Amino acid sequence: MTAGIDLGQPQAQSVRSDEDVVRVRQLVRAVAVAVKLSLVDQTKVVTAASELARNTLVYGGGGSVEVTTVDNGRRKGVRIVFADSGPGIADLNLAMTDGYTSGGGLGLGLSGSRRLVDEFEIETSPETGTRITVTKWSR
Amino acid sequence: MALSTEESGRLAALLGGQAERVTTRWTEIVTSSLRGRLSQAELRRQVEDLHRAIVATGQHGEIDLASENAAELRAALTELSRGRARQGFSATETTISIFALKDVLAELVQEAGGATALHDFVAFSKLVDEMGLFTFESFVRTRESLIADQAEQLLELSTPVVKLWEGVVAVPLVGTLDSARAQVVMERLLQTLVDTGSPYAIIDITGVPAVDTQVAQHILKTVVAARLMGADCIISGIRPQIAQTIVALGIEFGDIATKASLADALRHVLRLSGVETARRQPRRGV
Amino acid sequence: MERVPILKIGDILLVSIQLDMSDQTAVQLQEDLAERIVDTGCHGVIIDITALDIVDSFVGRMLSTIASISKVLDAETVVVGMRPAVAITLVELGLSLNGIRTALNVERGMELIAAAHADELDYQLDDDPDAETASS
To answer: Residue B3 carries which DSSP code?
Structure first.
């Protein structure tokens, strides 16, 4: 499954449709396998990627996802950046609350995916859209 | 830091010329530092290996511990430190075997004399220091990997999942639970449920001396995950102190079944599955 | 768009999800299943997710919706074969799959549906005064 993926390079995937969300999942899984995350950690990071890529599509009006491998000398990991140029998130605290949704979902996308990864950063503004960076390290 | 070709040549000549004397003196110094914990013959063999590697490298030209040329020397040093680390020697006892060479060299250089004596001794000393540091590094690496291996073995040993009855598996937890171990237990228990097709699991914590919020959370998550998969978990062996902690910490066990002992838990499970089979028989009349 | 096949086995509809579904495929399955329940009059639905390596909130919601729809259509839904890693992730994500019955494998799922159905038959028999007199 990792064939054809150059791990030294960031892998980009645009998110314009449903099928693209599936492609993001497959890409993240391939990279997670390559950096030897455990099965449970693979599942967690792919699930988080699925939630966030869907947010990019539904709330951000589409955007792009970039997957890179990271290495801090002791451990390897996967870093994923979700970027869109949508309207941004008006109330970040509210959006990070379990069960809050503005789009008819379950309201677990942001808050839930933060629990599934090791690092979670979010930048948002009405001018530049939303940019979420998540990282999962191998154990 | 490397020795020049001339210096290396002189070092090789110095050590190689009186091989027998050098290794004997070297072995003597090391023996006294290890207080007889390693046999004279074993020590002598190690010292001879090192001696041979240094002389061989020196004859080839400049000695640079990081270069291709010194591969044999590095291998000899690594082997020595690995052996010592496995046998339980301290870092000092290991590196002193290398630093002992300095004493030998000092005696040799003094005897030989000559215009370059002081310059050479400083250069040789530097090389010995480098070798010592290299040995120390590989000693630490060996110890670290030993510790990592042991931690992993402990993890393997301490989390058996046993089949108790047809359709009932149990994990008797013994010892302190940290997050990493709790996670391993959780994954192994759930996998066993799938592999054996068992709809019931008993988590027995009789052997757990203390439960903190994190561990309780892990146990709770396991129970919820098992439910999502279609299996029921029962927690047994909660000791009085632990029950008090759980209540004091305000941990909600909700509708999770808890039993005093493993036997009680098993009886409870058998009754549950018994009720199920009884319910399948048609009930006529009221 | 791919579609997930629905098999009818006796009184049970079996859906075995084998692919990484796009959201559209999931919604389509929801609709297809409702139609098949009505067409066949089946009283049980088994959704086998053994092959799914992740379940996110969208698929989770689809499973809940299917369970609710089939309940309205008088059919019991059981989700079977959830992988341990998926279950652990769902707990962390905070998804509880309320109202969904689960079983370890297809066989156990069928037992659950048979038991639920048997209870219902009992209840009907108990309720029927003729049956009562006939048996006594």
So the answer is: B
Give per-residue pLDDT as tens, C8-51. Answer: 999 999 999 988 889 999 999 999 999 999 999 999 999 999 99
Token digits of residue A107? 């309201």
Say if residues B65 and B130 touch (Cβ distance below 8 Å): yes
Of B186, B193, B230, the CB nearest to C80: B230
Beta bridge partners of A120: A134
Contact B225 C80 (CB under 8 A): no
List all residues 6 or more positions away from C87 whose beta carbon is below 8 Å from its beta carbon. Answer: B190, B225, B226, B228, B229
> What's this model's pTM, rounded to 2 decimal places?
0.72
CATH superfamily of B162-280: STAS domain (3.30.750.24)
> Could you tell me which of A76, A6, A80 has the C-alpha nearest to residue A37?
A76
ipTM of the modeled complex: 0.85
- Hey, are the CB atoms on B194 and C83 less than 8 Å from each other? yes
- Decide which of 1.10.490.130, 1.10.150.20, 1.10.1040.50, 3.40.50.2300 is the CATH code for B5-155: 1.10.490.130
Fold of C6-135: Transcription Regulator spoIIAA (3.30.750)
Nearest C-alpha neighbor of B50 from the set B99, B107, B123, B115:
B99
pLDDT tens digits for B243-279?
888 888 777 777 788 998 999 999 999 998 875 544 4
